[in-house]
Amino acid sequence: MAGVDTERIARAVREILLAIGEDPMRPGLERTPARVAEAYAEFFGGLDVDPLSHLADAVPIGASEQGVPATSDAVVLRDLAFRSVCEHHLLPFVGTAHVAYLPGERVVGLGRIPAVVETLAARPQLQERLAEEIADTLEAGLDPRGVLVVLDAQHRCVTTRGPRQTRSSTVTIASRGVLAEPAARAEIIALIGAEQHD
User: Fold this and answer.
1) Does the residue 1 lie in any domain?
2) Lowest mean pLDDT among 5-9, 56-60, 81-85, 165-169
3) Is 197 a catalytic residue?
4) Confidence band (pLDDT; 50, 70, 90) for 71?
5) For the CA atoms of 81, 87, 89, 90, what is the dihedral angle to 10 degrees?
6) Is 88 a catalytic residue?
7) Residue 181 is among the residues annotated as catalytic for this protein
8) Does 83 share its domain with 165?
């Protein structure tokens, strides 16, 4: 892919401003096309990035002196902030991702999981598909025994237009392997919802 064409976006935004009856050259709007183009380059920067690249440096978990795997049963990352853009109206949706996996033979640095979320969110998206893509990437990149992804987000196409449900949020869940089983999934969801203490 060639990347985001900011000049083309800026031209299109000028056309949108003209189409709504505005003057794109008036003070306050002169730099708007360039600003929107810069924002879109950030919003959609994940289109040129392979999310699996963030998991390329996964390492074998090894074993303890007793011969058992030297890792916990589950790795759970809670409260990962994310933002994406809904492909239906090109309006943002913003929320929190909770990601868990049960390591198989390999683990990855904790900073790599948010990078996967960020990359996949930085594309025109649907929340349902985003959860599935995060789960698929972790499954392909780490070969874990199980994966669970929970996304909770507010959609600007719901909060700012139509019925304007300003307090509503949408929760989507994607699970793989052992964590697709109801009892195991419920245990991880309880961990995600457990109260945190500083």
Assistant:
1) no
2) 165-169
3) no
4) low
5) 60
6) yes
7) no
8) yes
Give the separation between CA 42 and CA 87, rounded to whole angstroms. Answer: 15
98 is catalytic: no
User: How many CB atoms lie under 10 A from the CB of residue 31?
Assistant: 12
Q: Are residues 98 and 29 in the same domain?
A: no
Q: Determine which one of 38, 105, 157, 187 is catalytic.
A: 157
Read off the tokens for 20.
């709504």
113 contacts: CB under 8 Å, gap ≥ 6:
77, 80, 99, 138
Domain residues for 21?
Answer: 6-42
Q: Are residues 59 and 35 in the same domain?
A: no
Whether the pLDDT of residue 40 is over 80: the answer is yes
Same domain flag for 70 and 122: yes
Task: Look at residue 165 in the predicted model and tell me its pLDDT.
Answer: 84
Which one is catalytic: 7, 15, 30, 88? 88
* pLDDT confidence band for 108 (50 / 70 / 90): very high
Catalytic residue among 87, 128, 165, 181: 87
- 81/142 same-domain check: yes
* Catalytic residue from among 98, 125, 127, 133: 127
Mean pLDDT over residues 181-194, rounded? 93
Q: Does 108 lie in the same domain as 136?
A: yes
In a domain, 23, yes or no: yes
Whether residue 106 sits in one domain with residue 142: yes
Tokens 């698929």 -> residue? 136
